[in-house]
Amino acid sequence: MKRKSEIPGRVMKALASFTVSYAFVIIAYVLISCMGVFDPIDNQMALELMCVCLVIAVIHFILGFFETAFSPCFFLLNFGVVVAVVLFMGIVVFDFLVINIVFFACLAVMLVAVFTGTYLIAYFEDWKKVQEINRMIRKNKEQSVPVPEK
Q1: What burial class does residue 60 get, using C-beta atoms within 10 Å of its C-beta: 0-12 exposed, 13-18 middle, 19+ buried?
Q2: Cβ of 95: how many Cβ atoms within 10 Å?
């Protein structure tokens, strides 16, 4: 488990992930609704989509406390959470999913695009930090190479 001192940073990361995912969801939803597959967005749908994104962000926040944050299985688990929450809330809670193949194909593309975009943006800062740490390690190794004695 993570230390308590890391929680504010993790909360900020979760909020950033939530806002990015919600923005991507709205953009993707509008684009797909322009194709006539999804109903046009209204205030109620925008709030429902926000609730779905918030639930996903909370679950991802909780899962983030486990040490397997960068393993491929954890990546797939996070995507599985997205799919499960969207299906559950879309069918059971809000009843906005239409049961037809075109709808689900567009929904699948939307989920993959939004998840990938959110993941890349949310973890770009972590990637930059890892690159900086690797650069510092390489630099320290180069500086600590023993000089052959004469």
Answers
A1: buried
A2: 10
What is the rounded distance in angstroms from the CA atom of residue 21 to the CA atom of residue 26? 9
Which has more confidence, 144 or 73?
73
Nearest to 106 by CA among 29, 27, 18: 29
> How many helices (H) and strands (E) are present in the chain, helices listed first?
5, 0
Cβ-proximal residues to 118 (8 Å cutoff; 6+ apart), any chain = 17, 20, 21, 24
Torsion of CA 26, 31, 35, 37, to 10 degrees: -30
pTM of the model: 0.79
pLDDT in tens, 21-39: 999 999 999 999 999 999 9
Tell me how many degrees the CA angle 89-69-87 measures, rounded to the nearest 5. 15
Residue with the two structure tokens 């993941």: 119
pLDDT at 6: 78
Which DSSP letter does residue 93 get? I
- Other beta carbons within 10 Å of 103: 14
